[in-house]
Structure formats: C-alpha cells, structure tokens
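Hi U.,

Before I forget, here's the chain from the pilot set. I'm dumping it here mostly so it's searchable later in email.
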Amino acid sequence: MKYVVGCTEDKRGREAISLALALAKSLAAPMHAEIELVHIIRGAEPSHAISASERAYQEFQQLAAHKWMQRALALIPSALTARIHLRFADSMAQGLLEAVTDFKADMVIIGAASTGPFRRFTVGSVANALLHSSPMPVALAPSGYLPPREITRITCALGTRTGAESVLEVALDSAAIRHVPLRLISLVALDRDPHHSDDPNWARTHAQRTLDHAVAGVASRTIVTADIAQGRSIEAAIEALEWDESEIVMIGSSRLAERSRIFLGSTANKMLRALPVPMIVVPRFHVPVPAASSLAHG
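Structure:
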C-alpha cells in the first residue's frame, strides 16, 4: 500500500502522519506499506523563478522545509518504508493530487485544519479541494489524533443511494483482512428518503438487510453489527452513537460525484463536525485492487 501524506510544519502534519502509521501498522504485512511524506511549497521551482529574488526565496523555503521534513521522517519506525518529497505547485491540494498520480498512490492522508477543536474536524481549503476532486480515497485525521496501538473496529456509514454497495464492499474487505469487527451505521433515517417517509420501520429494516448482506460477504471472517443513526440532526445522531477512539469510519461519495471521484456530500460534511475518529471518504464506485484492497487500498 502506498500512502501520500500531506505534511505541514504543525500539529496538522503530525496528525496526518499518525493516521498513516495507524493504517500502515494495521496491514497484515506492514513492511509492504510505503509512506510518501509530501510537503508542497507554493509557487515555482527555483530553477523556473522569474527573478533572482524569487529564486532565492524559493531556495530558502526548500532548505528550511527539508530540515523539518527530516524530523517528520524520524517519526516513522524503521520497519516501515518512508520517503520525503518537496514539491512545488500553485496550491497544496493541486500538489498532493499530482503526487498521488505521480507516485501511483492508493490513498492521500491529511490532518484537519489547525483551528479545529480537540478530537473534531475543521475542513480547511486543502481538505475541501481534495474531498471534491480526488480520484483516490482521502483519509482525514481529526484534531488531536494520536496513533492507537491497533485499529480495533471499522465503521461503515451507509445510505440507500446509488453507490452505497461499493463502499460497503470496501469496508467488508478491510475488516475481514484485519480480523476486526465491522459496524454498519444506517443513515436512512437521516437521508429523508421521500419514498419511505411514512414508514417508521424503514430505517431498521434497511439496517437489518444491510447486516444480512455483510454477514454473507465476510463469510464468518469477522463480527458484523448494525446500528441506526437517529437524532434531531445529523450531528446529534453521530454524537449519540458510541465511538471507540481506535476505530476508523468509512463513507462513500455523494451521488453528485463523477465515477471514480470523490465529492463530499452534505450528510458526510455534517458528520465530520461531530466525528471524534478518522474518516476515510471513498470515491464513487471505487473498485480496489483485489490483491491489495483493505481500508480502500490501505
């Protein structure tokens, strides 16, 4: 598995590295994980600078970034493969997307905006851009995130809209490979489905049907449970659920997303405001590589 980690010289960068470590260590063969620590310097490369002063400034930024990126690299255990990269681009989001393509990465990992409250997300401009254009899964670390000793549960949030089946399959595979429990959260009650608005039992029926499908899918390789997110608002429903600080949440993209692209929907966006654990957003109709599919390629 190859992860591109968006590195910044602040706690947001350290939290992204923490999530990369948690994901890499949870693999059956962690030594096969590759962590590409990427820092984006805004602007042109020094060799493409249009003036001597611009070239000097870009070289200064490059030298300073290289020093602290070496410290970031030291956070990665020697048993894991990790490299640092300094790249130039017009924006961090553009640079990270180019790195994902150039490195043929399976996932891009970033931290929440530095202004977020502890154990919560604040989606800044970089995350917002990635969550509306990335061709690969995007993993978000909440503010204050520290790597657990192991990932103990995968939670998959599901609705009934087109594309839900693909994120379920990714979650099933991820849980089975790691031998950790899979919890399914039915979002039907929050989706305001007009076709079933008069049926008070619809949400529970959907949760049970999804659970039955999941149990068949893992072939007794792990424990599968189901729950229903209910509340006055999406934020209230998420806060009402029980969360394990060492779990990961997976959710699919909006129906507005292009095929194999991410577009964060309104439900997922509101979930982020209340979630205390990392979230992985999976592109619409994402199909993992069979030999390497776990946690959406990671």
